[in-house]
Amino acid sequence: MPVRVIDVRERVMAQNDLIAAEVRQRLDDAGVPSLNLMSSPGAGKTLLLERTLADLAPSLRIATVVGDVQTQNDADRLSRHTSRLVHAVVTGGACHLDARQISAALDAVDLADTDLVFIENVGNLVCPASWDLGQTSDVVLFAVTEGEDKPLKYPKMFKRSRYALITKVDLLPYLDFDVERAIGYLRDVNPNIEVLLTSARTGQGLDEWYDILRGHVRHASHVAAESA
Amino acid sequence: MHEMGVAMEICRIAEQHVGSAGARFLTGIGLVVGDDAGVERSSLEFCLETLLAQPPFAGAAVHISPEAGDTLRVDYLEVDDARPSH
Q: A202 burial class (0-12, 13-18, 19+ CB within 10 angstroms)?
């Protein structure tokens, strides 16, 4: 028979997920946690990282991988707050980061001299949710200038995230944003999600954010030491 | 929005399997796409049609089976070993 069918049954993401697993193993072996920050454009990922680097970089060795469709403006902004590497990934039109890009970026990072890796994903609430990067945890941000129902509109992103940061809360007096309703929608989509109310301008909620980061650093180094 | 990246990965998988099976021409791709896979069906079809019209392909049909959940899988390939080259 000249015409035949080849049985494949291969997941489309298999190659990406394989590389993501390698990234995860590298980070686990080094005892370095990694947080993948995702949001729509303009929710405040870069400002949160700027503030975090300014406040924590003296005590924590933080490496950052920043994805943008075009320009390395965000990487330039972050570089002002740390002497350590800020790796810019310009995706050239792609709407998300993938595991191969993170793996290549980590090749330039001395993980033995690093406590924490931030990945700032491309601003987009849809596509990044489909790509595993090898991260320890996902963090989704949404600003009070967006609608309370963002979790309902983009459930996949909110389902996979461990933390949700409701950002720009210093603007609440000027908006009709209903915080309780937003938290309710978050819990509808993901009952286990940890919610923080933050403002990178005023510093509100950042102590709690920093405690979470320090907790991840302690836990990852403890696990790596145990398995060494 | 990321359908082109997904389509390129599907084509990579197809090319690899066609090569390892010693087949000559790819005539069809069978996909399983879950309703929660984050992929828009018509957009994926458009991207695949574009890619499959270019070498090393010569226009293969795309068959998409919907499914519940987040499955995104290349299920099977149809090949024609007798199709003449052109």
A: exposed
